[in-house]
Amino acid sequence: MNIDNYPYICVDATCVVTDTKGATVYAIALLMELQKLAPLARFTVLMRSEAVNLLDISNPHWSIQGVKFKSAHLWHLLALPGLLSKLKPDLLFVLGETPLPWLSVPYIFTVHELPHVYNKLVGSKNISLYKYLSQSLTEMLLPSSFRRATHLLAVSKSTAIDIEREYKISPKSISITYEAADIRFFQAKSQFSEWCETLPRPYILVFATGDRREIPEVVVEAFGKISSQISHHLVIAGRCPEWQKSTLVETAAKLGCLEKLCFTGYVPDRDLPVLYRDADIYVEMSHYEGFGLQVCEAMATGTTVIASNVASLPEVVGNGGYLVTLRDVTILADKLLTLLTDSTQIKYLSKLAQEQAARFSWEKCARESWDVINTVISKQRKT
Question: pTM to 2 decimals?
Answer without folding.
Answer: 0.94
